[in-house]
Specification:
Elements: H1 14-22, E1 31-32, H2 35-41, E2 44-49, H3 59-68, H4 72-77, E3 79-82, H5 86-98, E4 102-107, H6 112-120, E5 124-128, H7 133-144, E6 147-148, H8 155-161, H9 163-172, E7 177-181, H10 186-198, E8 203-209, H11 214-221, H12 245-254, E9 257-261, H13 263-275, H14 283-293, E10 303-308
Parallel strand pairs: 2-10, 3-4, 3-6, 4-5, 7-8, 7-10, 8-9
Antiparallel strand pairs: 1-2
Helix pairs in contact: 3-5, 3-8, 5-6, 8-10, 9-10, 10-12, 13-14
């Protein structure tokens, strides 16, 4: 296992530098609360709504931060990324804003709204199977000398993602717990760094689908655990097979706990946020709330932050117009 000392750029203090770099570009997203939710879970819940971020997800933060730090030669040659959707859109929009050519490798079963938006921002979309996207990206990067903007195992991506939690602490003050959905670990590790800087006593908890608990297994074992196939889950934004070395290094030092949610729990949390709070979020966002709402994870009356990661979902009935 690689240690955090091998990634000196990944320090809690570095989140402040990332915030300074991107704060004039990103949306400062709202924090939403619900008295009904508080009563149900026996605590005080604060939802950091990154579904109101540019491209509808927190991924824009990391993408813009990473692309803004490319040197002139890298920017001239262009970038490549692989993603099921939100990282794809984030890189595509950031590249458009910075005048950089972007190629995105997307799984064939990506949510249509995410694929259409990625192309709409001007990126070249290359389709592949979910399990082949890393290989296809590497081949294209070598052929065209593109810079790979990895969706989570990239220090500048991690630092950019951490700015969402940084903002949350500035908006609501100290918290007892902070939950984040976890796929590759970019959001969780960035959140953990921001928490270490802004509220060291706060416990950071990563949440995964039961079918894709590689990050939790990695965190517990101290080495990266790789799944044989991408997990089958409604939470399409976290369908990763393994986390990165950087992510595990940060998580090992700054994450307090890892937990999971079943598909039913994710759907119940999604239904609550949509129907009771009237907020359009994607299943990956509901993932972070699911273990709390189900009662599986006890928060003991605490003040709890939840990173709502995005809101890119297909609109029901939109096919009527075609």
């Amino acid at each position: 296992m690689k240690t955090l000392e091998q990634f000196p750029e990944l320090s809690p203090a570095s989140i402040a530098d990332a915030m300074d770099r991107i704060k004039s570009v990103v949306n400062q997203t709202p924090v939403m609360t619900s008295s009904t939710l508080n009563e149900l879970v026996g605590g005080e819940i604060f939802l950091k709504c990154e579904n109101f971020q540019k491209i509808g997800a927190f991924k824009f933060r990391g993408a813009y931060h990473a692309l803004s730090k490319l040197d002139a030669d890298q920017a001239a040659k262009g970038v490549i990324a692989h993603s099921s959707g939100n990282h794809a859109q984030g890189v595509a929009l950031a590249a458009k804003m910075l005048g950089i050519k972007a190629t995105i490798v997307m799984p064939e079963d990506s949510t249509p709204v995410k694929m259409e938006a990625t192309a709409g921002y001007g990126a070249t979309v290359v389709k592949s199977t979910a399990d082949a996207r890393e290989r296809v990206s590497a081949e294209l990067a070598e052929k065209h000398e593109y810079t790979l903007i990895h969706p989570y195992d990239n220090s500048d991506i991690i630092l950019g993602q951490g700015t969402a939690a940084w903002e949350l602490f500035e908006e609501v003050g100290e918290l007892d717990y902070l939950f984040a959905p976890t796929g590759g670990g970019g959001l969780l590790s960035g959140t953990a760094l921001a928490t270490a800087a802004k509220c060291p006593s706060c416990k950071v908890v990563g949440v995964e689908p039961v079918s894709g608990d590689d990050a939790g297994r990695s965190w517990r074992s101290g080495s990266v655990v790789e799944l044989e196939k991408s997990p089958k889950t409604i939470a399409d934004g976290v369908r990763t097979r393994f986390i990165g070395d950087r992510n595990l290094a940060v998580m090992s030092r700054y994450v307090s706990d890892m937990t999971t949610a079943t598909e039913r729990q994710i759907l119940e949390a999604l239904q609550f946020v949509w129907a009771r709070m009237k907020i359009v979020v994607e299943p990956s966002s509901a993932l972070a709330l699911a273990p709390i709402l189900s009662g599986d994870y006890q928060i003991n009356g605490g003040r709890v932050g939840i990173i709502i990661s995005g809101g890119n979902v297909n609109v029901p009935g939109c096919g009527f117009f075609h």
